[in-house]
Specification:
The structure is a single chain. By secondary structure, this protein is mainly α. Helix 5 runs antiparallel to helix 12. It folds into 2 domains: about 80 residues, no CATH class; about 230 residues, no CATH class. The strands form 3 sheets. It has a 3-stranded antiparallel beta sheet with strand order 1-2-3. A two-stranded antiparallel ribbon has the order 4-5. A hairpin with a 6-residue loop joins strand 4 and strand 5. The protein contains 12 helices and 7 strands.
Length: about 375
């Protein structure tokens, strides 16, 4: 029987028999105490592994050290882990509130943070035929601009007389007014009589104003070069195309940004009218411009509200009319217009649906809160 000192200050008895070391009952008591201390710590796996280690043989005299006899470093590490575990158990649970001070860092999040993650919740999946039908409003406006430019070129070259254009635009105005009146009755538009009266009054006033200002507008840009006129006209038509109101909800008036589009078209028309020869041609061309860019879009919106197929049919007819009119002016421009119309009608919807698969919109608890406003009426 031999007493073997250990580092933790607790001696235990060791017996040497046939060159093998065997533990005494007191050593078993020390090992059991160390095992119980390991179970009380948060790192139970470390205590369990330490308690099941095989006896170590010292290199000096063959003395053995039982697995339960821990060093001072291991005891202090277990004490630190146990202290942190006790501190974690005593802290209050984390809450997602910014107006209270908590025992957690500012960037702390718990395990449920990403459970509220939502992907592509507001993404709208498009159907190809529906998107093709909705492109009619764009192709209609592009074709209407092309028809207007073709009318000016024919009037500028002298192949179209001013009185013919005046009669043609007047007939179209009357037909459009009848069509608008029938659709207003069909759609049950409120205050239809008041709107009808205001529309007629406005048309008469604009016609008289244009007739009186035609000599002034004809000589408005005499000192300006033609290249500047053509360049400014292209810019104004691009602004008209960009700011045009392509929605179908506005049926009675012109709102922003549609007003910007209308003003740009009228300015382009005034610049083009200043290049004509006679006052009658200027008056007919500006009257046609007001009808084409002011009244015709409202009729197209009414038609769109009634039937999407009828709106698509009008888009096809306008594209064909513009192509036929430009066929006598420039075949390249006519083919380019048809190609652009086909691309906008069939290519752009396909492109939109193809890029929609790469859309990745995420929502989660990091988004700012949206207040819910309740309206109470007495």
């Amino acid at each position: 029987m031999k007493i073997v000192p250990t580092r933790i200050g607790v001696p235990f008895l060791s017996r040497r028999r046939d060159g093998n070391a065997a533990a005494s009952p007191s050593a078993h008591v020390v090992r059991d105490a160390a095992h119980n201390d390991g179970e009380r710590s948060s790192s139970s796996s470390s205590g369990a592994n330490s308690s099941t280690l095989a006896p170590e043989v010292s290199p000096g005299g063959g003395q053995t050290r039982e697995p339960g006899a821990f060093t001072g470093t291991s005891a202090s590490a277990l004490a630190n882990v146990s202290g942190r575990s006790e501190e974690a158990r005593t802290r209050r649970p984390w809450r997602k509130l910014l107006y209270i001070k908590q025992e957690y860092p500012d960037d702390y999040v718990d395990g449920t943070f990403l459970m509220e993650l939502q992907k592509n919740t507001n993404v709208r999946m498009y159907d190809y035929p529906i998107v093709v039908m909705q492109t009619a409003v764009v192709t209609q406006h592009i074709s209407s601009i092309m028809v207007f430019i073709a009318v000016f070129i024919n009037l500028y070259r002298g192949s179209l007389a001013g009185h013919v254009l005046l009669w043609f635009s007047s007939i179209l105005t009357v037909l459009g007014f009848v069509f608008w009146d029938i659709l207003s009755l069909y759609l049950h538009t409120p205050e239809r009589r008041i709107v009808r009266f205001n529309l007629i009054k406005g048309c008469v006033l604009f016609a008289l104003l244009l007739f009186g200002l035609s000599p002034i507008l004809r000589t408005l840009t005499e000192d300006t070069s033609s290249d500047t006129i053509w360049a400014m006209t292209v810019i104004f038509f691009c602004v008209n195309l960009a700011f045009h109101d392509y929605s179908t909800g506005n049926l009675t008036n012109i709102r922003f940004p549609g007003s910007v589009s209308l003003n740009a078209a009228i300015l382009a028309s005034v610049l083009l009218a200043s290049q004509l020869d006679s006052n009658l041609s200027v008056f007919a061309f500006l009257a046609f411009a007001l009808e084409w860019f002011g009244l015709f879009p409202i009729s197209r919106r009414y038609l769109r509200r009634v039937s999407a197929a009828a709106s698509m049919t009008m888009a096809v007819l306008l594209a064909l009319v513009a192509a036929v009119m430009f066929m006598y002016i420039s075949r390249v421009v006519a083919l380019l217009h048809l190609s652009c119309t086909l691309f906008v009608t069939f290519g752009c919807p396909l492109w939109l649906i193809w890029v929609q698969r790469y859309k990745n919109e995420i929502h989660g608890p990091w988004d700012e809160a949206r207040p819910i406003v309740h309206h109470y009426y007495s």
